[in-house]
Design brief:
Chain lengths: 237, 237
């Protein structure tokens, strides 16, 4: 009886540790989500103060990444988990790498916002980005939601959006090139819009990676590098 | 005696498995190194056939990544390693993510090489990239070498190069902007050079990440997000 009770105690502690890791990942996810939204807003409205705030959050995100990483390795070494628990911990280590890179991309956008001269500010110069921003925001929210609920139902919808993001991105680049040719004095500013579009497109890729990690945790299938149809087939299986 | 013999047998098998993983990582490293060098050469010399070859290697790199990943998780689940062995396996999972991303960047350069019209080819348009290419090549070689020999002696030298790469990259971007303003008909081509410079700069970042993973394996210290001086201090300690 004592052994069983102590077994239950250990298992309860283990559950708590796993829940703690999960909770920290979601905190980190919320932070980089906020960083991305604030960086884009700072860039579009030329708000340098907000951009500084985004950059200041970088340390918190980095520390959280290292802390979660350390927690996962510690749990693996001490508890020697297998099956879904091991998949969860290994995948968390990968998810937080993607989250940290999303934070980096947000930081790149924020740095451009700081460099902008507020007097140059023309709101309608950035309307090209609006659609892309909304799509990528949706993908990131969706991927974090899939992780929070360990639900792979919505994964195909999110990764399908990535194809739309790529098309939108290509079309923005084309528009920007035309504008640069028409008015070469605007090249520097247009390049900033172009880098921002690129950063957003990358954030979309990271959101897809997070979705793939969730599929791996839930089903044990490695669905990286699959075509959209193959992915959808694997998820339904 | 029997137990000891069987213990030795298991330990021997374990060593073999670890050596096998290490060997595969180096194979993957050699492949992406080749991809990067060939992609740049294809871009500079407008060699579309070579660029196609780079893209074809992508599947091999991706499959190797998934295979190594699977091997590591399998070994962790079955052997329940701790200390340096666990650090090695977790770090390998991260190193191969960086290697795969380097392959992706090489693929991006190759795609631009394919899009180029060979008749437009002017060799001296790309001389801006030469210095950057050599620096990044050196960083990647150095980081793979550090991994192969588990030697952190050269790490500070490699990460110090990253600051030079960033400066060189910024200077290339400035030159390109000037050229675009002077001759707006050349904007598309100049943007390709700009994306290539960006891809190379990112490859340098991944090489630094690999170095940081090697420090973690050897010393158990997480040296990500440190300033250069702090990193050098940690390594010497």
């Amino acid at each position: 009886m004592e052994n069983r009770a102590s077994g239950q105690h250990i298992s309860h502690l283990f559950d708590e540790e796993m829940e703690n890791v999960r909770h920290k990942v979601l905190t980190m996810g919320g932070l980089v989500q906020q960083q991305m939204e604030q960086a884009v807003l700072a860039f579009i409205t030329s708000d340098q103060e907000l951009a500084e705030k985004v950059l200041q959050q970088d340390d918190t995100v980095n520390n959280l990444e290292m802390e979660i990483d350390h927690d996962c390795i510690e749990i693996i070494a001490r508890r020697q988990p297998t099956a879904i628990d091991l998949r969860m911990l290994i995948s968390v280590i990968k998810v937080i790498t993607d989250l940290e890179r999303i934070g980096d991309e947000a930081g790149r956008i924020a740095k451009m916002a700081i460099r902008l001269d507020a007097t140059d500010y023309y709101h309608d110069q950035y309307h090209e980005l609006n659609h892309l921003v909304e799509m990528v925001k949706g993908m990131l929210n969706g991927s974090l939601d899939a992780f929070a609920r360990m639900d792979i139902e919505s994964v195909a919808k999110i990764t399908r959006k990535d194809e739309k993001v790529d098309r939108e991105y290509t079309s923005i680049i084309r528009q920007l090139i035309t504008q640069m040719m028409e008015d070469p004095r605007n090249i520097t500013r247009m390049l900033d819009v172009l880098w921002t579009a690129r950063a957003l497109e990358r954030i979309g890729d990271h959101a897809c990676n997070i979705c793939e990690h969730v599929v791996y945790i839930v089903k044990g299938d490695d669905v990286r590098h699959l075509k959209q149809e193959e992915l959808e087939h694997k998820i339904k299986k």
